Amino acid sequence: MKLFNIAEYGIFDTDLHFPGRKKSEERVLTQYQIEYFISCTGTAHVNGQAYPLAPDRILCTKPGQTRHSDFGFRCYYIHFTLPEGSEYEKRWNSLPDFYHLVKAEIYRPIFASLANHLLPDGEENTSDLLTAKLLELLYYLEQDRTRNLNYLAQPELQHNPFLPRVTAFIEENHMSPLTLEEMARTAGYSPHYFHKIFSSVMGMTPGEYLLSIRIKKAKEALIRTDKGLAQIAYDCGFASQSYFNFQFKKATGTTPGQYRKLYFAKYDN
Predict the structure, then answer these.
(1) pTM for the whole structure
(2) Residue 234 vs residues 53, 105, 109, 244: alpha-carbon distances, Å
(3) Rounded to an integer, what distance in angstroms lies between the CA atom of residue 102 and that of residue 79?
(4) 3-class secondary structure, 177
């Protein structure tokens, strides 16, 4: 049995599809419609709720909802239905209608990959790639559900959406001894207020987030390079190899050396 019945997907541009029109007609949806906005000045209306559109926001609408849009946007989209009795129905229906993404770089490649594999008109959309991408998308949307709701619950973030900027800054400078003051300065707030808002939305403190990025980069270095542990510790921003070993084992349950050996043993067999 197919996991999803995919109706259409691609890139939608209101200026090309509806030239001269300012908004769409109100309609009741019969499909799941997932849209990732690339550029826009419009507004989406779902069950009477208005959602201001901007790049790196996602709309997740479901069958039975009432929908119309004020035009002026370009987006990736995918429309699909679920087979009767699908195990995924409850999961898709539990997603928020609107996502203001903190880490949009996770989602862009998924939608871009879909757009790069468009099928000729008339061919049935049964590709394993489409199914895999939808499952990947569902996984990340579920992971980001709480973070997104916390983001939208902070009115100040609608005026200064600093979190994507700060997370990018931390990733780009994870090898440096970043301080709370430096991160807060990037956000434009005091250290105390920045720490409070960041922790509320991300579910971890700025320091914990920085450590998670360093661990992630260390994992990549352990399996993709033959660098020594001391060099990896230095490259990833750890003060010493012993501190690197301690934090890595605390996060993964294994030492860096064991992690590397286990990884290659797994794929050598």
Answers:
(1) 0.77
(2) 41, 26, 30, 9
(3) 24
(4) coil
| Average pLDDT of adjacent 10-residue blocks, the chain of 269 residues | 83 90 94 94 93 92 96 93 92 94 87 73 61 92 90 82 91 95 94 94 94 96 95 96 96 95 76
Tell me the C-alpha to C-alpha distance, in Å, between residue 58 and each of 100, 118, 119, 144, 238: 7, 20, 23, 12, 36
Inter-residue contact 82 to 5 (CB < 8 Å): yes
What CA–CA distance (Å, rounded) separates 88 from 71?
Answer: 31
Superfamily of chain region 5-151: Regulatory protein AraC (2.60.120.280)
DSSP code, position 23: B
Selected from 3.20.20.110, 1.10.10.60, 3.30.450.20, 1.10.4080.10, the CATH number assigned to the domain covering 159-269 reads: 1.10.10.60
Spatial distance between the Cα atoms of 23 and 246, rounded to a whole number of angstroms: 57
Residue 214's φ and ψ, nearest 5 degrees, are -65, -40
